[in-house]
């Protein structure tokens, strides 16, 4: 009970801080420039201030439209189905009869999506804690939760995005696989693979766990593990079947990406050194005013933070179960 209270308290503090930062941004950042589609048809109808509906912007508006109308819009198939389906399924809120749903998204979808995303993230924190406790002390588990919450991009977990749902499913599937509930783990991994494309890599974690415990596996247990492994990619397979049946393209979720700018580079591949060189060049050659200089230093610090993570992974690669935690 103490642990649940601790996790819930951390979550509430984090959520309040996010709203405070969003509210403060109205006074610290120039006026919103309306540079992403559908904000006026999917977010403004909520009647909420922008520091609240801002947690549904960019990809969020596409998930809201999918929840209301399905895969009607061109290129919308690049967004995986589980998250918008859950918003639609759990949307028990009353609808606004004055809303023309041919143009606008009913506000109830926003409210449902925001509530679900935060509940999913709370679920992730619980499973992440339980997963850590299998190998580490209470102190390390609690500190890890704090580090997740203070991570610079943790605001995505409280937004209308798939991140919180995917992380909850991934953490839960690995936890149940490690506690020998292999079929349940496979089912959760299958749902994760229909939530985000990276869910297809969760079985790799299962294989690593099987390899590390290969000497203690019995035949019956091995059969259950095999079932869990076979279940894991089914979510993606089912989505690919749906795409082919309805749109004639198994890989439409990939082929739709250029519609959102994913194919805007003239090169087939961009290597990490090229990215680093480009940012160094911009940092050294662009004329700065006060705000842009601050933003550049901020991006630079985030970059150092981000690219140091692989070094941490490599240095601890040979510790027990480090690979599972890193991939989650």
Automatic annotation (TrEMBL):
Pathway assignment: Glycolipid biosynthesis; glycosylphosphatidylinositol-anchor biosynthesis
Q: Which UniProt keywords apply?
A: Endoplasmic reticulum, Glycosyltransferase, GPI-anchor biosynthesis, Membrane, Transferase, Transmembrane, Transmembrane helix
Which cellular compartments is it found in? Endoplasmic reticulum membrane
Q: One Pfam match, by short name?
A: Mannosyl_trans2
Which InterPro entries does the record match to this protein? Answer: PIG-V/Gpi18
BP terms from Gene Ontology: GPI anchor biosynthetic process
Molecular function via GO: alpha-1,6-mannosyltransferase activity; GPI mannosyltransferase activity
Report the membrane topology from the UniProt record. Multi-pass membrane protein
- Tell me where it mainly resides: endoplasmic reticulum
Gene Ontology CC annotation, any one: mannosyltransferase complex
Q: Give TM segment ranges.
A: 7-29, 109-132, 144-177, 183-210, 222-242
Tell me what this protein is called: Glycosyltransferase RgtA/B/C/D-like domain-containing protein
* Species the sequence originates in: Candidatus Woesebacteria bacterium GW2011_GWB1_38_8
